[in-house]
Amino acid sequence: MISENALAAARQAYDIEAACIQEMKEYFDETAFAKAVSLLCAAPRIGAAGCGHSGIACQHFAHLMCCIERPARFISPAEAVHGASGFLQQGDVMVFASRGGKTAELLPILDICKAKGVSVITVTENLQSPLAQGADVVLKQYVNRETDKWNAQGTTSTTALCMIFHALQAAVIEETGYRESQFALIHPGGAVGQRLNKNKTSERSK
Q: pLDDT per position in the chain (206 positions), as tens?
């Protein structure tokens, strides 16, 4: 059995992150969000970049976009300045995630995007930061505190970032009219694929 302190910390983690998501809704900017969704819907390709936990969340975002057939990929900040930014062409969209908005590894990529005519969406807490100031659209991230006792690990901040990404995907699905049958085609694997394609088979048999 683990200590009561450990159990209390676990319960508190639920409370901290639940509160963060509820409080972050107060910073929801409909105009900025709508512009971000429009850019994502129109983009031939979508890139996403961040460092650390933000980078991991960006990988998740790129996969979410691919799951609704918006071609996307995570661009490693290290590889971006060694040729990987060639993935991006004029008219594409680049999504940066940086809680402080000053991540040094991302700033050269911002310059590349501007030079190539790539639209930029930045998700950050710091609206006055370089990545925010250089963006076409800024989505406000809010974090009450991280879940660990030192308020240092990328926990609540990662959840907040993923919440914004999930909201973007939900809106893009609605704006593009993406259908369940389309997802069934590209997701035949696993329990989800079985359920979707079972529904598809049932509809055909009617």
A: 899 999 999 999 999 999 999 999 999 999 999 999 999 999 999 999 999 999 999 999 999 999 999 999 999 999 999 999 999 999 999 999 999 999 999 999 999 999 999 999 999 999 999 999 999 999 999 999 999 999 999 999 999 999 999 999 999 999 999 998 888 887 888 887 788 787 655 555 55
Query: 201: which 2 tokens?
Result: 């088979």
- Give the global pTM: 0.93
Is the distance from CB of 116 to CB of 90 less than 8 angstroms? yes
**Residue 168 to residue 64: CA distance in whole angstroms:** 10
How many separate helices (H) and strands (E) can be counted in the chain? 9, 5
Dihedrals phi, psi of 104, to nearest 5 degrees:
-60, -35
Dig out the tokens for 115 from the structure.
């030079």
Kindly provide the b/e burial profile for residues 138-170, where b requires at least 16 CB atoms within 10 angstroms of the residue's own CB. Answer: bbbbbbbebbeeeeeebbbbbbbbbbbbebbbe
